[in-house]
Design a protein that fits this description.
Strand order of the largest sheet: 3-4-5-6
Mean pLDDT: 79
Oligomer: single chain
Signal peptide: 1-21
Strand content: 15-25%
Protein name: Lipoprotein
Keywords: Signal
Number of domains: 1
């Protein structure tokens, strides 16, 4: 029995060590699982944020398409009275200042250099300055456009879109539009329109 007691003690000691080692391994495995779970939750949050951004940009495309809904039953229209409402105040003022100098102006030839200098000082750090470009949204000119043949809106970056407007055989435009979010909707904060030939 005396010989068996030391062997029994060694056996118990080894059993306790293995047991302790197993607990340590179990704790390490639990910690690893917790870390993996945290990483997965972070990835899920990132995916959720990405999906929300995609939804915002898709909503932006839909918002732009809705600007062309007609009041008269035609397929596509664009009305002057909405222009000020859909632009940021700053961008609308930029369009007005651009038109005052480079559009239908009532400035004399003597007043134009001073107006251009003031325009440049006011806007050059905010927007690309205009000279010959169409100042109004989508090349609409000075009239409501109630017989637009077709429009296409294409996303080119987050909150940036290209809008193609087919007014008729001889009158087509393409505009690059920058949107800014506004309480679940948008404002246009920049538009660069070119006439297509």
């Amino acid at each position: 029995m005396k010989k068996a007691l030391p062997l029994l003690l060694i056996f118990l000691f080894l059993s306790c060590s293995e047991s302790k080692s197993g607990v340590t391994k179990s704790f390490d495995n639990a910690q690893e699982i917790t870390n993996d779970l945290g990483d997965n939750l972070t990835k899920m949050d990132s995916l959720k944020e990405h999906n929300e951004l995609v939804q915002i940009t898709d909503t932006g495309k839909e918002w732009l398409e809705n600007l062309f809904k007609c009041r008269n039953g035609n397929k596509y229209c664009f009305y002057l009275d909405q222009e000020e409402k859909i632009c940021t105040e700053r961008f609308y003022q930029f369009m007005m200042d651009s038109e005052r100098i480079y559009g239908a102006t009532n400035l004399s030839e003597e007043e134009i250099p001073t107006a251009e200098k003031n325009y440049k000082e006011k806007w050059q750090k905010i927007y690309p300055l205009r000279k010959d470009m169409e100042p109004w949204l989508f090349g609409r000119g000075q009239d409501d456009m109630e017989n637009i043949r077709d429009i296409k809106v294409e996303k080119i970056a987050d909150l940036k879109y290209r809008v193609f407007v087919d007014y008729d055989e001889d009158y087509k435009t393409i505009s690059e539009i920058t949107l800014v979010p506004n309480n679940g909707s948008f404002f246009i904060d920049y538009s660069d329109t070119e006439f297509l030939k």
